Amino acid sequence: MNVVLPAPGEPLRMVAVHAHPDDESSKGAGSTARYAREGVEVTVITCTGGERGDILNPKLRGNAEIEADLPAVRREEMARAQEILGVQHEWLGFEDSGLPSGDPLPPLPEGSFATIPVQEAARPLVEAVRRLRPHVMTTYDENGGYPHPDHIQVHRISMAAFDLAADPEFAPELGEPWAIAKLYYINAFHRQRFAAIARYLREEGQPNEELEDMLLHFDERTDRLLTTRVDVRDYLQVRDDALRAHATQVDPEGPFFRIAHDVDTHAWGTDDYELRISRIGVELPETDLFAGIRHEEPERAQPEEGGWLDLVRSEGHESSSDGEGR
User: Fold this and answer.
1) Which residue range forms the structural domain that includes residue 99?
2) Is position 266 annotated in a ligand binding site?
3) Tell me, which GO biological process terms does this entry list (predicted)?
4) Phi and psi of 41, rounded to 5°?
């Protein structure tokens, strides 16, 4: 399989695949904003329009104008968030599946994103990959980050498109084959980060009871593997501004915004990823999604001994060059 790396002077390219408008601003937003400002061609691909979402901002509930056409409002919110992040954006065009509840769970709406066979649903993503020719793709893990059917479907079609886009025998009408060099899972909400922040606050004499209670619900045995941590300390405000642009979807006083930037900067300060598949040789851990792809590696903050570098080493993933990320 021919992996084409960028020529000298050619821009780096990445696609970030997400389920709904607002996901791009709550998962990996700091790193996409950083890369866009560094000259990387970053494209966010949103699979659905969020048509079956709710109004989660208590200050906007009951707003008749918003409720009359929530999908249109969410498209406007997405456009504002895109501008703030500085990325390109494409809709994949599928219909939100909603988040079913009840016992037993009701069937998903017919024709919604999560009900479509994976290879069929992957076709527009294959077309986008072949046209955009990214060097890196980011997506969700096998559990979707959380078990929303659309998030799980994002994982499935991303994995399928990673393979199918490179297969010259698959759907030649969708464009020339393109082999993405590296595929990452976004590890946005994980115990390690929250534990580090809670520990820092305790050491500063400012324990956060809400955070401590939340940590009781995590199981260390299910910690995600963090192979790659991108320094986003200078982009925390951009991340928050992009998320607030999705005004119907977030409470501006809610838990997303309760960790002060100076606390996050001192205690953690990175967007975290798991390198799941690499078609080039890699050395872990990384501080850059484009490690091994760039012609000139930028100077980036290095992890401190006793911190996340040791965490990765303890998992037995200090380095790899056999083409697999784990």
Assistant:
1) 7-188+228-261+270-303+319-326
2) no
3) mycothiol metabolic process; mycothiol-dependent detoxification
4) -85, 100
Residue ranges in 189-258 assigned as alpha helix (H): 191-203, 209-215, 236-245
Asked whether 57 and 67 are in contact (CB, 8 A), the reply is no
Domain-located, residue 92: yes
CA distances from 261 to 212, 226, 268, 270, 272 (A): 18, 21, 10, 12, 17
Query: pLDDT tens track of the chain, all 326 residues?
Result: 789 999 999 999 999 999 999 999 999 999 999 999 999 999 999 999 999 988 999 999 999 999 999 999 999 999 999 999 999 999 999 999 999 888 888 999 999 999 999 999 999 999 999 999 999 999 999 999 888 999 999 999 999 999 999 999 999 999 999 999 999 999 999 999 999 999 999 999 999 999 999 999 999 998 989 999 999 999 999 999 999 999 999 998 887 888 999 999 999 999 999 999 999 999 999 999 999 999 775 554 444 444 444 444 333 333 333 344 43
Can you give the pTM of this predicted structure? 0.90
Q: Domain containing 149 — which CATH number?
A: 3.40.50.10320
What is the strand order of the sheet 270-278 is part of? 88-94, 41-48, 13-18, 136-139, 182-186, 270-278, 228-231
Does a structural domain hold residue 250? Answer: yes
From the list 296, 20, 26, 325, the residue with the least C-alpha distance to 180 is 325
Q: Are 247 and 61 in contact (CB under 8 A)?
A: no
Residue in 159, 74, 156 with CA at minimum distance from that of residue 115: 156
Q: Indicate whether 313 belongs to any domain.
A: no
Encoded tokens for 42: 């970053």
23 is in an annotated binding site: yes
- Residue 175, class by beta-carbon neighbours within 10 Å (0-12 exposed, 13-18 middle, 19+ buried)? middle
Q: How far apart are CA 216 and CA 151, in angstroms?
A: 25
Distances (CA, A) of 267 to 12, 33, 219, 305, 311: 30, 21, 20, 14, 15
> How many distinct structural domains can be found in the chain?
1
Which runs of E-coded beta strand occur in the chain?
13-18, 41-48, 88-94, 136-139, 182-186, 228-231, 270-278
